[in-house]
Design a protein that fits this description.
Order of helices and strands of chain B: EEEEEEEEEEE
Shape of chain A: globular
Helix content of chain A: under 10%
Number of strands of chain A: 11
Number of strands of chain B: 11
Radius of gyration of chain B: 14 Å
Strand content of chain A: over 45%
Largest interface: A-B, 25 and 24 residues
Distance between the termini of chain A: 36 Å
Largest sheet of chain B: 6 strands, mixed
Number of helices of chain A: 0
Structural class of chain A: mainly beta
Oligomer: heterodimer
Order of helices and strands of chain A: EEEEEEEEEEE
Helix content of chain B: under 10%
Chain lengths: ~110, ~110
Protein backbone atom coordinates (compact mmCIF):
# COMPACT_ATOMS: atom_id res chain seq x y z
CA UNK A 1 0.00 0.00 0.00
CA UNK A 2 1.34 3.41 -0.97
CA UNK A 3 -1.11 5.13 1.39
CA UNK A 4 -1.68 8.77 0.40
CA UNK A 5 0.34 10.05 -2.56
CA UNK A 6 0.67 13.62 -3.78
CA UNK A 7 2.03 15.19 -6.96
CA UNK A 8 4.03 17.23 -7.60
CA UNK A 9 6.49 17.32 -4.68
CA UNK A 10 7.68 20.82 -5.52
CA UNK A 11 6.28 23.62 -7.69
CA UNK A 12 7.19 27.21 -8.42
CA UNK A 13 4.54 29.47 -9.93
CA UNK A 14 4.36 33.08 -10.96
CA UNK A 15 1.58 35.28 -9.59
CA UNK A 16 -1.57 34.73 -11.61
CA UNK A 17 -0.68 31.28 -12.92
CA UNK A 18 -2.94 28.33 -12.24
CA UNK A 19 -2.20 24.78 -11.22
CA UNK A 20 -3.76 21.64 -9.81
CA UNK A 21 -2.35 19.61 -6.94
CA UNK A 22 -3.15 15.93 -7.17
CA UNK A 23 -3.86 13.52 -4.32
CA UNK A 24 -4.70 9.82 -4.39
CA UNK A 25 -5.20 7.20 -1.68
CA UNK A 26 -5.29 3.41 -1.95
CA UNK A 27 -6.75 2.67 1.50
CA UNK A 28 -10.39 2.66 0.34
CA UNK A 29 -11.08 5.67 2.56
CA UNK A 30 -14.27 7.64 2.11
CA UNK A 31 -13.11 11.02 3.41
CA UNK A 32 -10.31 13.17 2.03
CA UNK A 33 -8.87 16.53 3.09
CA UNK A 34 -6.59 19.34 1.95
CA UNK A 35 -4.50 21.28 4.48
CA UNK A 36 -1.87 23.97 4.25
CA UNK A 37 1.05 24.35 6.67
CA UNK A 38 2.77 27.68 7.21
CA UNK A 39 5.65 28.53 9.58
CA UNK A 40 4.42 29.41 13.06
CA UNK A 41 0.90 28.24 12.33
CA UNK A 42 -0.76 24.90 12.75
CA UNK A 43 -2.04 22.91 9.83
CA UNK A 44 -5.21 24.57 8.53
CA UNK A 45 -8.01 22.85 6.67
CA UNK A 46 -8.75 24.23 3.20
CA UNK A 47 -11.44 21.87 1.90
CA UNK A 48 -12.61 18.37 2.64
CA UNK A 49 -14.74 15.69 1.04
CA UNK A 50 -16.68 13.49 3.44
CA UNK A 51 -17.55 11.05 0.67
CA UNK A 52 -17.43 10.70 -3.09
CA UNK A 53 -19.54 13.40 -4.68
CA UNK A 54 -19.45 15.86 -1.77
CA UNK A 55 -17.08 18.69 -0.88
CA UNK A 56 -17.15 21.30 1.89
CA UNK A 57 -15.19 24.39 2.82
CA UNK A 58 -12.75 24.31 5.68
CA UNK A 59 -11.11 27.13 7.58
CA UNK A 60 -9.23 28.84 4.70
CA UNK A 61 -11.01 28.07 1.37
CA UNK A 62 -10.59 31.41 -0.40
CA UNK A 63 -8.56 31.19 -3.60
CA UNK A 64 -8.95 27.42 -3.94
CA UNK A 65 -11.28 24.95 -5.59
CA UNK A 66 -11.46 21.18 -5.22
CA UNK A 67 -12.70 18.21 -7.18
CA UNK A 68 -13.43 14.76 -5.80
CA UNK A 69 -12.77 12.89 -9.03
CA UNK A 70 -13.65 9.45 -7.63
CA UNK A 71 -13.25 7.62 -4.34
CA UNK A 72 -9.45 7.52 -4.68
CA UNK A 73 -8.64 11.00 -5.95
CA UNK A 74 -9.10 14.52 -4.59
CA UNK A 75 -7.52 17.49 -6.37
CA UNK A 76 -6.89 21.06 -5.25
CA UNK A 77 -6.84 23.86 -7.83
CA UNK A 78 -5.40 27.34 -7.60
CA UNK A 79 -7.02 29.38 -10.37
CA UNK A 80 -4.86 32.50 -10.00
CA UNK A 81 -1.97 31.94 -7.64
CA UNK A 82 -0.94 34.66 -5.18
CA UNK A 83 2.24 34.95 -3.05
CA UNK A 84 0.06 34.41 0.05
CA UNK A 85 -0.55 30.87 -1.22
CA UNK A 86 3.12 29.99 -0.83
CA UNK A 87 2.92 27.07 1.57
CA UNK A 88 3.26 23.33 2.01
CA UNK A 89 0.07 21.52 1.07
CA UNK A 90 -0.92 18.20 2.59
CA UNK A 91 -3.63 15.82 1.55
CA UNK A 92 -5.11 13.40 4.10
CA UNK A 93 -7.73 10.67 4.17
CA UNK A 94 -9.78 8.78 6.74
CA UNK A 95 -12.21 5.87 6.91
CA UNK A 96 -15.89 6.64 7.12
CA UNK A 97 -16.86 7.04 10.75
CA UNK A 98 -13.24 7.00 11.90
CA UNK A 99 -11.49 10.00 13.41
CA UNK A 100 -7.87 9.32 12.47
CA UNK A 101 -6.57 11.06 9.36
CA UNK A 102 -3.55 9.78 7.43
CA UNK A 103 -1.38 12.28 5.60
CA UNK A 104 0.51 12.33 2.32
CA UNK A 105 4.10 13.57 1.90
CA UNK A 106 3.13 17.11 0.89
CA UNK A 107 3.62 19.54 -2.00
CA UNK A 108 5.89 22.51 -1.43
CA UNK A 109 4.51 25.44 -3.47
CA UNK A 110 6.23 28.77 -4.00
CA UNK A 111 4.40 31.64 -5.71
CA UNK A 112 6.67 34.45 -6.90
CA UNK B 1 -12.64 30.49 20.54
CA UNK B 2 -11.27 26.96 20.31
CA UNK B 3 -7.51 26.88 20.85
CA UNK B 4 -4.73 24.34 20.97
CA UNK B 5 -1.41 25.41 22.46
CA UNK B 6 1.74 23.32 22.50
CA UNK B 7 4.77 23.87 24.71
CA UNK B 8 7.64 24.20 24.60
CA UNK B 9 8.12 25.37 21.01
CA UNK B 10 11.49 23.63 20.92
CA UNK B 11 13.21 21.14 23.18
CA UNK B 12 16.75 19.82 23.14
CA UNK B 13 17.51 16.63 25.08
CA UNK B 14 20.49 14.43 25.58
CA UNK B 15 20.06 10.80 24.61
CA UNK B 16 18.43 9.00 27.55
CA UNK B 17 17.11 12.22 29.14
CA UNK B 18 13.36 11.73 29.61
CA UNK B 19 10.95 14.63 29.27
CA UNK B 20 7.37 15.60 28.41
CA UNK B 21 5.70 17.70 25.75
CA UNK B 22 2.50 19.54 26.57
CA UNK B 23 -0.66 20.17 24.56
CA UNK B 24 -3.26 22.32 26.30
CA UNK B 25 -6.66 22.92 24.76
CA UNK B 26 -9.56 25.27 25.29
CA UNK B 27 -12.48 23.88 23.33
CA UNK B 28 -16.23 23.76 23.56
CA UNK B 29 -16.37 19.98 23.52
CA UNK B 30 -13.61 17.45 22.91
CA UNK B 31 -14.32 14.44 20.75
CA UNK B 32 -10.72 13.28 20.45
CA UNK B 33 -7.11 14.39 20.78
CA UNK B 34 -4.47 13.25 18.33
CA UNK B 35 -0.68 13.15 18.38
CA UNK B 36 1.35 13.13 15.17
CA UNK B 37 5.06 13.05 14.45
CA UNK B 38 6.44 15.07 11.54
CA UNK B 39 9.94 14.66 10.15
CA UNK B 40 11.48 17.49 8.07
CA UNK B 41 10.07 17.53 4.55
CA UNK B 42 7.54 14.80 5.32
CA UNK B 43 3.85 14.57 6.12
CA UNK B 44 2.53 14.07 9.67
CA UNK B 45 2.62 10.46 10.83
CA UNK B 46 -0.15 9.31 13.16
CA UNK B 47 0.90 8.25 16.66
CA UNK B 48 -2.06 8.18 19.08
CA UNK B 49 -5.72 9.05 19.58
CA UNK B 50 -7.08 9.76 23.07
CA UNK B 51 -10.78 10.14 23.78
CA UNK B 52 -11.37 10.56 27.49
CA UNK B 53 -9.64 11.97 30.57
CA UNK B 54 -7.44 9.40 32.22
CA UNK B 55 -6.78 7.51 29.02
CA UNK B 56 -3.17 6.54 28.22
CA UNK B 57 -1.58 5.08 25.08
CA UNK B 58 1.98 3.80 24.64
CA UNK B 59 4.25 3.04 21.72
CA UNK B 60 7.89 2.21 22.23
CA UNK B 61 9.44 5.15 24.13
CA UNK B 62 6.32 7.34 23.82
CA UNK B 63 3.34 7.54 26.16
CA UNK B 64 0.43 9.92 25.68
CA UNK B 65 -1.92 10.90 28.49
CA UNK B 66 -5.06 13.03 28.60
CA UNK B 67 -6.74 15.19 31.24
CA UNK B 68 -9.73 17.50 30.89
CA UNK B 69 -7.50 20.44 29.95
CA UNK B 70 -4.32 19.04 28.46
CA UNK B 71 -2.40 16.13 27.07
CA UNK B 72 1.18 15.12 27.65
CA UNK B 73 3.50 13.18 25.38
CA UNK B 74 6.08 11.57 27.63
CA UNK B 75 9.34 10.48 26.01
CA UNK B 76 11.33 7.95 28.02
CA UNK B 77 15.06 7.51 27.37
CA UNK B 78 14.88 9.20 23.95
CA UNK B 79 17.21 8.34 21.08
CA UNK B 80 18.41 10.61 18.26
CA UNK B 81 15.88 8.97 15.92
CA UNK B 82 13.10 10.45 18.08
CA UNK B 83 14.09 13.89 16.82
CA UNK B 84 11.10 15.37 14.98
CA UNK B 85 8.30 17.87 15.36
CA UNK B 86 5.41 16.53 17.41
CA UNK B 87 1.97 17.87 16.55
CA UNK B 88 -1.16 17.81 18.65
CA UNK B 89 -4.65 18.16 17.17
CA UNK B 90 -8.20 18.08 18.51
CA UNK B 91 -11.50 17.09 17.00
CA UNK B 92 -14.55 18.81 18.47
CA UNK B 93 -17.96 17.39 19.17
CA UNK B 94 -20.25 18.75 16.48
CA UNK B 95 -17.19 19.89 14.53
CA UNK B 96 -17.56 17.38 11.74
CA UNK B 97 -14.28 16.10 10.34
CA UNK B 98 -12.23 19.19 11.16
CA UNK B 99 -8.99 18.83 13.09
CA UNK B 100 -7.59 21.88 14.89
CA UNK B 101 -3.82 21.68 15.13
CA UNK B 102 -1.31 23.21 17.49
CA UNK B 103 1.91 24.66 16.13
CA UNK B 104 4.04 21.76 17.32
CA UNK B 105 7.07 21.08 19.50
CA UNK B 106 10.37 20.64 17.69
CA UNK B 107 12.36 17.97 19.53
CA UNK B 108 16.07 17.38 19.03
CA UNK B 109 17.79 14.49 20.79
CA UNK B 110 21.56 14.64 20.84
CA UNK B 111 24.16 11.95 21.51
Amino acid sequence: NAGVTQTPKFQVLKTGQSMTLQCAQDMNHNSMYWYRQDPGMGLRLIYYSASEGTTDKGEVPNGYNVSRLNKREFSLRLESAAPSQTSVYFCASSRQGADTQYFGPGTRLTVL
Amino acid sequence: EDQVTQSPEALRLQEGESSSLNCSYTVSGLRGLFWYRQDPGKGPEFLFTLYSAGEEKEKERLKATLTKKESFLHITAPKPEDSATYLCAVKLTGGGNKLTFGTGTQLKVEL
